[in-house]
Amino acid sequence: TLAALTARGKRCTARRAERAKAVATEEDEDVGYRSATPRERQFGMYEGRRRSNTGQAVELPLSQLHVVAAQRQLPMLLEAVPGRDPSEAIAAWSELLACCQAQAPELLATWSCGIGPLLRLAVAVPKEHWLRDPQDLWCEDKTVPVKMDGPEGPLIGVESLPKLEKLIRHLLAKYDDAPMLLASGFIWNDGAGGTLREHDGREVVLCSAAGMDLCVRFMQLFREVCQGTRKPVAAAQDLLSPTLTKKMVSALLAAESNQRLPFPAPVEVPDSARHVQPIEVTLQGPLMALRRAQLQSLGSAPAELTEALATTRLAKDLGDEELEEFALDLMAWLSRFGEEFEDSNAGLCVEWLLSQRALDPKFSLVVSGNPRAPKKVLAAAKRDAATLELERLQQSGQRFLPNPAGIKGFVKRGVMAPFGSPYENESGASWVPERLRALVGEASLLREPSPPNSWQGDDYEPCAAEERFLKDPQQLRKATVRIDEILSFEYLQHVGQTMRNCLRVERRGGMSLMKYLSRVKARESSFWVMTITAEEEKDDEEVAPVQHMLLMEVYNGLNVIHQAEGPHPRRWPRADAWRWLQEWAQQEGLRPDGPEGVTVGPYGSYDGRMDRWDIRRCFLW
């Protein structure tokens, strides 16, 4: 019911203001209070205050599938419109649904071409900005009986788009020449928010939170341009990017596709948890329309360059003012030298230049007064192909929003670190935990000695082989240490596969993964990965090696490092990785010894003689 949605929206808003309820902990005779951890909330280990439901139930012909879809997308929309009152948004949506029930019931039959756009409209554009009453006659077409539980999918219901366009124009446009390309924010979907499936042939593919944030910005720009509340360039600079010029905005508004509401993107129904949508979905998005206008204003907008940009992070997100300034310089550079690249190489070079800018804010496309040579850029990009592949994975598949606590990553250049593992080159036999040795008959297939790890117990165990390995001068190489937030399901899976931990979807039936994934989607936790990348080439290397060192989970609201786990089989953090973890924690104000911290564990306390960063206190959850 709409009452349930209203209550859910209120809970979402309340959680952003106050993430947790008080949890009492007794120490001697004193009782202290602290915030509940995400894990405690997830498993019901605290008594939260019950909320009363003050919403008024409204009966409307919505299927259960569409109600659940609204419950999933509403929190993302509210996150993208700070200060929006959930009750008012739901009331506005209820009014839109009621008027469509009378004038265009086709819009209530499908999610992507009706119910979803109406929800976006109700949240992104408050009712006080509607120019006309939705109960007025805006659709004179003959109504057609519809089946509310009929076929459902990303492209089902497109025949009702003309009626959706009439409603949008009726509510938001003063004149007939509305730039409908901007209205693509009402219907575009990146297909990266997961799938709801009632049965085969009746599925809703959801938009990610990052994609929804983009759509909201373009919807609000559409409203301002159509109503003339301020000049288009001023509105675009405020809502999209301060770097936009009058020429760029004019090119965006003059696009040929502005005449009609754009056709929905060709989103596919995922056939697996790791499905990646086709490039055409990105090409049809509102952000790519903006990038085309920017390229056109710079003097070049061939289709080849547009497709090259669509494979990069420039097609996924709008950056801050400084990053968008660099993006303009990059597009100007690409327009000048684009003919020297093949399509795939152009995208690779763009990603490399963006990655260098992320590592060094002073990085420039001009060296000694001259633009960087395309051949040198391409050679550097090919050498860093492994790192760039990780960047690509960050933008692939289901996507997550960055942590709401503002925690940033970490970069440290010029460290000396060994690559590999002390267990790699031992006999080709498989390693088996000691507790399982009694169940294995052929001891000759086992490595001796087995690496000390958490399977032996909860207490940290030193490893002589690892200590020798860290000091071996033959293994040391100059490297760059990075700690990056994991922002996609695809990259989460890659890290799980590489480090061989329980984040892999096939491990334990995926139960551990779903536990962690729910905390990420609720933005209560964020996951981070530490990598080292070689800075110096070896004669036999075409690609610089990248090694995954640690997987970390941070409780966002508490600034507590909950987990820090190395790769299998050792799993305990290496000593050098532990030091870099401390440097990052100091940089970002994180602590290891807060509630359920990595040096506290589930037991609540350790020997007070140990420092809070003593690696012997490290607990592997």
Q: What does the model show?
A:
This protein is α+β, with helices and mostly antiparallel strands and 621 residues long. Helix content is 39%, strand content 11%. The chain has helices at residues 2-17, 38-42, 64-80, 86-103, 111-124, 161-172, 209-227, 232-239, 246-253, 279-283, 286-297, 303-310, 321-337, 343-359, 374-383, 385-394, 464-471, 489-499, 511-521, 575-588; strands at 22-27, 30-35, 195-199, 202-205, 366-367, 370-371, 410-418, 476-485, 525-534, 546-555, 560-565. The strands form 4 sheets. The protein has a 5-stranded antiparallel beta sheet, with helices on both faces. The protein is globular. Mean pLDDT is 84; it is low at 16-32, 47-53, 426-432 and 441-449.
Features:
621 residues; alpha+beta; two-stranded antiparallel sheet; 5-stranded antiparallel sheet; single chain; 11 strands
Multimerization status = single chain
In which range does the helix fraction lie?
A: 25-40%
Mean pLDDT: 84
Taking pLDDT < 50 over at least 5 consecutive residues as the criterion, the unreliable ranges are 16-32, 47-53, 426-432, 441-449
Number of distinct beta strands? 11
Q: Tell me, what's the shape? A: globular
Report the major sheet.
5 strands, antiparallel
The structure class reads: alpha+beta
Strand order across the biggest sheet? Answer: 7-8-9-10-11
Quote the beta fraction: 5-15%
